[in-house]
Amino acid sequence: MDELRGVGPLMLDHHAYDGCLAHVSIGSWHAVPPGFVWLGNLPVPEGVPALSNTYSGWHSLADDVVRQRRWDRELPAAAKDTYLAAATRGAVDVDFGAGTATLGAATPRLLDLSGAGSMRVPGSGPVRWSALDQLPRCTALAWAGPERGLAGALADRPIVSSLTWRDAPPVVDLTDTGLQHLSLSGADVREMRLPRSLHGLELAAVDPGLAVYAADGGRWLHLILSGADAETTVPAGLHGVREIALDGGGTMSVTALRELKRLESLRIHWRQPPGQLIDAAALGSLTSLAVIELVDGYGLDADTLPELTSLTQLSISGLRRSIVPALKTRYRGTGVRLVIEGAKRDTWLAANLNNPFRDWIDDDARGGAAACKAYASAVRTLDKLLRNRDRQADEAESALRTLLEALNTIDQKYEIIDTLRREEAFDAFVELATRAQVPAHLADQWFDEWRDF
Q1: Where are the beta strands (DSSP E) in 80-144?
Q2: What is the model's pTM?
Q3: What is the pLDDT of residues 262-302, one digit of tens each?
């Protein structure tokens, strides 16, 4: 505590920040992480508004502290100097061995070298990693396939703190890098070694036999298992994980979590209906589990979760309205803070459970209903076209354009399409375009050309 005497609010001057106050608005739906310890409070500096335009969760504060501390105490001075100097540099020629491309030295925070972006790398053989030195403000990379010197390149450039790696090889060793966030997928991965600096790990489509070597058994990791389903397992070596998120299909199981004896926080997000949780009784053995967040669990009942003596907050966003009274009765007077959002009528869900815009009614009832109606109309039109191949191409384009024009009108009237809703609109549009056999690049082009939001 003596070290905290005289401490002021956190001011951010790492990377592109210019000394601004770390100021975020955190909604009641977000529980204070169990690992946070209340020390006290400080007066709000004069002139700081009650609410920030930045909305996030409690973890963003911890991330701010970690990033600022890393900038102040861990990053080499040369890396910081070149990062700052590049802000005023012009275009540079970059060549990873497959041809030169011209980029702005100050612009590419995320550089996609996976083959999905515009930057080319050789299909095989050595990669000219020295090209990264032309982009000192690059802090995130996307990569795919064999390692080919990637780990060494990252170890030599600690300014890169985030990596997305698809189709990773059987052995992944990132021990000597300065990564803080890693998103990895690959059915062939059998062994993964992580740096002590890592605190965010997302795994998708990995082998059930994967073994992970992480500091303190993953104690400091926020673990996300994407594409989770009823068969999902937790990789060996992550027994110390305290925070986990399951993000995936319509039915999920928590059986694999019973070995995570230190688990304090659980988030489950169903990306597809019906939103069911099986084997929930397995949570009963987790005596430290304090926070549970459930998103789009439309198949849940009031008694789905077992009794959890350590539970302090249960947040549910997206559920059947019919179970809300029983939920409130169950947790009344128990010491559990129950936060409920997005409860919907059972009759509405019966008609719109498979509609990707169903949750838009939480933002605006009329605008959300109009979006659902527009999507349903597009589905009906495309289903008819699939039975008449001769008319498919031209009329599929018309149906998709009609959908986006409807969304343009809805946003103009109700102003409900923010960044999240735009991503949902894109995903839904691409799914329909794929169903109509529209090439992916053309679907992307149409979406950008036709949308006004």
Answers
A1: 91-95, 100-104, 110-112, 140-144
A2: 0.91
A3: 999 999 999 999 999 999 999 999 999 999 999 999 999 99
